[in-house]
Amino acid sequence: MVLVRRGVVDVDMDRTGGGPPVLLLGGISRQRMWAGLTDTLSDRYRVLTLDLHGQGATPAWPGTRSQTLADQVRLVHALTAGGTERIGIVGHSIGAAVALRAAVELDERVAAVVAVEPTAFALLGQAGRTESWRAVQHHRDRLRLLLAAGEIEEAARDSSDFWLGAGSWERYTPDERAPIEQGLHHRLAEWDAVTDPALTLAEVATAPAPTLLAVDPDTLVPVREVADVLTAARPDWERAELRGAGHFAPLTRPDLVHPLVEDFLDRHLRP
After folding, report:
1. Around Cβ 38, how many Cβ atoms within 10 Å?
2. Residues 143, 111 share a domain
3. CA distance 242 to 248
4. Domain containing residue 219
């Protein structure tokens, strides 16, 4: 672990390998999400794995206002400020939404983006995907109400069932449940970021970098529809199917995800 400070931003990150830089942004802590991929890439890339707000030792969002994707992108800027090298960015879930937003802000500095199951849910409302948009708003608002009422276990159960299916919470041991419950408030902040009504396609889908969208065709309907909206806006982007992997594909099917990432980076980032 290295805690990097840039101005008022602290970022918990690790660095390994040598070569062109690749940033890995996870939907959960980097140690769980990217350990195997880091090993795969570090023989030819300088791999930077960082934790978003509330993960690892990166401070939780302070809650003085609603979090936005731009707030998470500040962590990326903290690691890239002052550099001139072209970079690759790989993200999963909210990390994929952050990666897409970072690519727009960093513009020509980004050579390749891989977005696995991006959750930029705000795009659903703007694209007329009303049923899915209402579903994610309902879950966000229910999570907020349960946390405000101190119903931590119920909030954790509801969150688990949303992402992993009904009854998933019951399969966890008490030791497995504890960190999920402890992380719910930062998850709520992330929900604010991905449902920010001010978020537009222009802020996540106008980067010049070659981009790969990787999605399980049978994933959560709102996640699949986000990918559909992005594909319609950017037909030049590549799209890969992670059939049977589910939303947490980097964990459940690294055998599918890692070769896709490796191939895409090698095609667009290697000299």
Report:
1. 21
2. no
3. 10
4. 2-127+199-268
